[in-house]
């Protein structure tokens, strides 16, 4: 046997290469939805025998991972939801208060999101980490029945330990507590906060992996990027803020990073709760039910308050929901679109929608950090800027320290906030949760926040981009080629 292998190893290797390449090429052809992606992967597979097929198996097989994960999560959406029909908002109400333009957004949301547009909500913006963490900790310390927390990063630093201690104290006084941390996000601290929580008696788990043995490779590229905290079924916190010291001035000092978070009450709390509940049940198999987990009745009267909708998205039945909502918003804009995003890497469809809006006369302003915490992402972002600038969009580099906020406002009427970045990972690979808002007051407040940062920001000019040295521009384009996996 060994003699045969040693004599005919070249022929055996050729057969293995042909079989692996054929299987991989057929899979790419049959499963990729974009022709350029299919052609690209087939080229890699054919031009790099064996190695190309292995690379495809690791980096190009997200559709199978996504499909498998979707089947495993299929039963999650059958969880009974607490829903009060009298808080539902009709199309006529939206058209009356905001015009037929935004009535179209209501129709779109109804068709792509599994959550209703509801009235009776309150939304309070928390503009700094210190403000957000103080409000969240106060809510945890005041919890009487239940606490459900889902987050991407939960660092074991001064802020993370403060949260962990508050959660441990809640368990000791009889509150039902559950904490879900993404398996990748849990690794931002070594050792992880998970052991600290477990030692304190807090039921905690990680999403799509484990801490000791490593990530579960079939799902390693699929992460929960959601940030949800629900207290006693009546108040919730959501937005872009992870739990880490870098966003608290008391811990980071002058080097503090910026972010924006939100405290919410009303019917959307039930939808945020059930979004996190589904993820907890998927990760652990435990169904959270009974009196401790009951969602409370909203205090506001139906038809009052902020009109809002929770928009979960991710690689399951909610695939690309956030992408579709953004496409719709860019398409209906008439006056202005303002976007604040730390990682701005939109796909060709979103770029076309923004460019088309600019050509229609819509003022499109995109605010990104002047200093980014992810250098590779920043290079890839810069490589795309010319596609927007040459057709009338405006891009601004914020001054000061890194800002992680994800805010979007259209015509001072419609707003979209939450955990989603405008990059391939958030739009296709991560589990995200956002909130759609129909409210002129909130939209104007968010718009003012963006414009305040723009006042000291530096405009990115096309002539300056093109005047930079060729080696730098080439490097950015090379990094941009790998942007779907940054």
Automatic annotation (TrEMBL):
SMART domains in the record: PLDc
SUPFAM superfamilies the UniProt entry points to: Phospholipase D/nuclease
EC number: 2.7.8.-
Membrane topology reported for the UniProt record: Multi-pass membrane protein
TM regions (residue ranges): 12-31, 37-64
Main location, first listed in the record: membrane
Subcellular location: Cell membrane; Secreted
Cellular component terms per the entry's GO annotation: extracellular region; plasma membrane
A GO molecular-function annotation: cardiolipin synthase activity
Any single Pfam family the record assigns to this protein: PLDc_N
Gene Ontology BP annotations: cardiolipin biosynthetic process
Residue ranges of domain PLD phosphodiesterase in the record: 220-247, 399-426
Annotated keywords: Cell membrane, Lipid biosynthesis, Lipid metabolism, Membrane, Phospholipid biosynthesis, Phospholipid metabolism, Repeat, Secreted, Transferase, Transmembrane, Transmembrane helix
Function comment: Could be a virulence factor.
NCBIfam families tied to this protein: bac_cardiolipin (TIGR04265)
Entry protein name: Cardiolipin synthase
Lineage: Bacteria, Pseudomonadati, Pseudomonadota, Alphaproteobacteria, Hyphomicrobiales
């Amino acid at each position: 046997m060994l003699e045969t292998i040693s004599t005919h190893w070249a022929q055996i290797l050729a057969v293995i290469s042909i079989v692996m390449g054929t299987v991989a090429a057929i899979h790419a052809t049959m499963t990729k939805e974009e022709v350029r992606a299919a052609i690209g992967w087939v080229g890699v597979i054919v031009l790099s025998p064996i190695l190309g097929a292995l690379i495809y198996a690791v980096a190009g097989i997200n559709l199978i991972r996504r499909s498998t994960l979707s089947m495993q999560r299929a039963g999650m959406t059958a969880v009974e939801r607490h829903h009060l029909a009298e808080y539902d908002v009709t199309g006529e109400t939206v058209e009356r208060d905001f015009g037929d333009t935004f009535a179209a957004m209501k129709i779109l949301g109804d068709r792509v999101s599994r959550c209703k547009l509801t009235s009776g909500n309150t939304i309070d913006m928390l503009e700094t980490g210190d403000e957000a963490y103080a409000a969240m900790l106060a809510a945890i310390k005041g919890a009487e029945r239940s606490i459900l927390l889902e987050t991407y990063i939960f660092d074991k630093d001064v802020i993370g330990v403060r949260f962990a201690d508050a959660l441990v104290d809640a368990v000791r006084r009889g509150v039902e507590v559950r904490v879900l941390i993404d398996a990748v996000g849990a690794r931002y601290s070594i050792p992880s906060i998970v052991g600290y929580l477990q030692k304190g008696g807090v039921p905690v788990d990680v999403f799509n992996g484990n801490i000791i043995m490593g990530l579960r490779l079939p799902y390693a590229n699929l992460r929960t990027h959601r940030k949800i905290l629900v207290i006693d079924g009546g108040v919730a916190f959501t937005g872009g803020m992870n739990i880490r010291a870098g966003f608290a001035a008391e811990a980071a000092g002058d080097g503090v990073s910026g972010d924006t978070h939100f405290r919410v009450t009303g019917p959307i709390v039930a939808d945020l709760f059930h979004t996190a509940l589904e993820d907890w049940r998927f990760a652990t198999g435990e169904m959270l039910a009974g009196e401790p987990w009951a969602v409370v009745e909203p205090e506001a009267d139906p038809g009052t308050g902020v009109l809002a909708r929770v928009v979960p998205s991710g690689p399951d039945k909610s695939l690309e929901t956030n992408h579709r909502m953004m496409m719709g918003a860019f398409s209906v804009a008439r006056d202005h679109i303002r976007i604040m995003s730390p990682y701005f890497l939109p796909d060709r469809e979103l770029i076309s929608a923004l460019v088309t809006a600019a050509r229609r006369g819509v003022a499109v302003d995109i605010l990104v950090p002047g200093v980014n915490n992810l250098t590779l992402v920043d290079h890839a972002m810069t490589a795309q800027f010319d596609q927007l600038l040459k057709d009338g969009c405006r891009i601004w580099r914020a001054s000061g320290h890194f800002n992680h906020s994800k805010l979007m406002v259209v015509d001072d009427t419609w707003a979209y906030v939450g955990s989603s970045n405008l990059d391939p990972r958030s739009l296709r690979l991560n589990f995200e949760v956002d909130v759609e808002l129909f409210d002129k007051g909130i939209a104007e407040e968010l718009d003012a926040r963006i414009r305040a940062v723009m006042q000291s920001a530096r405009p990115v000019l096309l002539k300056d981009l093109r005047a930079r040295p060729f080696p730098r521009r080439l490097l950015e384009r090379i990094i941009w080629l790998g942007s779907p996996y940054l």
